[in-house]
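User: quick one - fold this with guanosine-5'-diphosphate bound?
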Amino acid sequence: MKHQTEIEKRRTFGIISHPDAGKTTLTEKLLLFGGAIQTAGAVKNNKIKKTATSDFMEIEKQRGISVATSVMAFKYNGKQINILDTPGHKDFAEDTYRTLTAVDSVILVIDCANGVEAQTEKLMEVCRMRNTPVIVFINKMDREGKDPFDLLDEIESKLNIKVRPLAWPIGMGDRFKGVYNIYDENLNLFSANKTKISDEVVSFDDLNNPELDELIGEEPAEELRSELDLINGVYDDFDPETYLSGEVAPVFFGSAVNNFGVKELLDAFVRISPSPRGRETDVKKVEPNDNKFSGFVFKIHANLDPKHRDRIAFLRIVSGKFERNTFYQHIRLGKKLKFPNPTSFMAQDKSVVDEAFPGDVVGLYDSGNFKIGDTLTEGEVMNFVGIPSFAPEIFQELQNLDPMKSKQLDKGIKQLMDEGVAQLFIQQPGNRKIVGTVGQLQFDVILHRLTHEYGAKCSFTPKNYHTACWITSDDEAKLKDFMRAKTGNIAEDKDGNLVFLAETPFLLQMAERDYPDITFHKTSEFK
Ligand code: GDP
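Assistant: Sure. Structure tokens for the protein plus guanosine-5'-diphosphate:
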């Protein structure tokens, strides 16, 4: 019974956005409501800004901040809320994608002036792969932006999801008067730069009440009435089930920096968002209320002190109860491990936890046992699936500059790949190491760390590849033909899967056309 209660009160989610839409600001306001922090400005922005390579320490410092804010837990309305932080910088997008495998829902922040941006589209693609429930928060309503109806259309067409406004803005920019809460039928009047958390909310179950005209003015009141009529005509009534299945995204409007519309968002979130969900393994689906503990590693963070090569592996608990100092089975290594200091993160504070429940994330100190995607259980042999690698976009060949130090290089590159910093492809002849990433920044990180942490001497040479696709076929002979024809473009990933490296989108298209019996996969998750 207690276990069930613990599960039901948890909400584990991520906030995603294109950089600058207001993710950090919104996170901070949510933490204020939960009392997890006392003052604004306490959540450090973990935006990684690229300046010069010499600024590597700056990147590391910022990565350090992102450790501290990896998981932010707070309590609100009887719920235990875990926000999993996602790096905003596009070069670290893979980190974000993997973190999305550990959440049960997301809040997507959109800037009302910029609408749907490039990074928004990519992140939503990942959410759709997993049918993750999404709530949209349209931010910066205190500024002039796009028409709200146009924004909704843009979200539907570009993000391929239906929307259902549960709040509606009254004007925007200088004319922004507030937000009508469609869900609760009340009106929240805007006053800029609110510093305190207040409840200046007026209930309006009948919008024809002339008091509305007095409160916001005759014209805006009329406009609101007709817009709400339109909304009710155009959109189906809100059905929480369609939200939970990832088909419909409820939409809220507000201004995070002014702490406006945030409470409405949080209240609705607590009411409708899912409690921890089960996860698929290669054997069965594991449900949170299964008695036996299980969990998976979705993120690994290197120690910032190069003298200590230990790392923190972030484990999402899927079922049962995780306990400190208890032996668990590391499935890939086939050995038992116990953890004397599992750590939880509360805003800036870290503390040792004795137990954790489904939906929780704990940090495990690790000296090299973990890779991203690893499963821990009480003994049952199974592996969580659904933590894919994504096709990289930039490729460089790693060259060893000091044959005396190849061991260091091999060890270093292996550990960095375990952390998911980049992907390694081995090409024959000569076991050539091709490193693929989603952003240029990772090459700086890799070179710096190989040199400083592992004492290797190496350099990168750019390779002219556009993408990597995993290839499979039911027809062994056809696959062999293809490999013979494309020898120079074939490599193996870390697990020995075959990969086709294509120089241009056109060459990939040609290959797909000429070899219909071969399937080209954009992510490593195809089994
Ligand atoms: P992130 O990159 O998504 O984390 O965005 P931030 O939270 O760092 O916000 C980017 C910028 O937008 C900052 O300068 C914020 O102060 C500003 N900002 C955030 N919310 C609002 C808002 O509601 N209105 C306005 N005018 N600015 C905002």
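One thing worth noting: The pocket of guanosine-5'-diphosphate is lined by residues 17, 19-25, 45, 47, 88, 139-140, 142-143, 255-258 (CB under 6 Å).
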